[in-house]
Amino acid sequence: MAIYAIGDLHGCYREFKKLLEKINFDHDKDKLYLVGDLINRGPKSEKVLSYLMDHTQSIFPVLGNHDLAFLVFQAGLIRLKRHDTYDEIMQSERIDEYVKFIREQPLMRYIPELDIAICHAGLYPNWTIPQALSLAKEAEDVLRNDEQYENFLPRMFGNFPNIWQDDLEGIDRIRTIVNVFTRMRYLHDDGRLDFDAKAPMDEVVGLVPWFRFPNRFEKTQVIFGHWASLGLHNENNIMCIDTGCAWGEKLTAVRLDSNPQMIVQKKRKKEE
Question: pTM for this one?
């Protein structure tokens, strides 16, 4: 058995399948964790979702901001942006199944035998792993409960509160949890989240990458995506594996149970 993680798919189904072939992935024996942003920007988001739904015993996703944005778009609460490719899913006869599947996915997974956490954007530095799992579950429960979901969805997007406090309540609490797990990149010195800066670290002044704050993860390794301009980045106990497949670059797989952890990549080809 082998355990892998793959970076942001963004609907790049062809590269995803080619990468699975390249690592000789066996659905009967192996496990695969996905760091979120399963759909959007790439050309085959529906095929990605259909494939994941057919392999729930071997593939274990977490949610990214583009997956959550689809839920908001599907409810008619936002418009498409320039590079969005949700239309393919919206026109499918299986649209209700896809919405249900996305709502059922977690914001974080933890692999105890490897002491590895999987999430989309990262973990707030002040959180312990048990605390992060508990907070993720709070938000997941809201997404899965029809009444709470309908109340939260129009209020999901927003930049405030922009700092975690244990006494946050209601919509503010759930929105902040979601923002940490799916949108975080840089923090201010006081721990406030910045939602504007996306550039590489050497181009950003006055902000600190979340993973360079003193943290409470101890020896747990955190595998995440979300940050294409950061690319493949391995530093201390964190690894970013978003290598920009949606933007014509590479899709990255890492074998989590090998030492050293093996990296395999598939370059995206132009669509014919």
Answer: 0.97
